[in-house]
Description:
The chain has helices at 2-6, 19-29, 42-52, 55-65. The chain is mainly alpha-helical.
Amino acid sequence: MLDQHLATRKFLAAEQYTIADIATFPWTARYEWEGISLDKFPNVKRWFETIYARPAVKQGMDSVYDN
Length: 67
């Protein structure tokens, strides 16, 4: 469902990064723990990589999960 939604938009709510992306990203960030490959979901993968590439997101996620 998320992959289909992201097929027509860059971010969850629109063409700009919003609180919807901020709130949803952590829920998708540990897809590997669930044994899921993002390769099956190209739009989610693109969105995930776009969000994770933001310096503040990467710093925050790394500080939480690398400890």
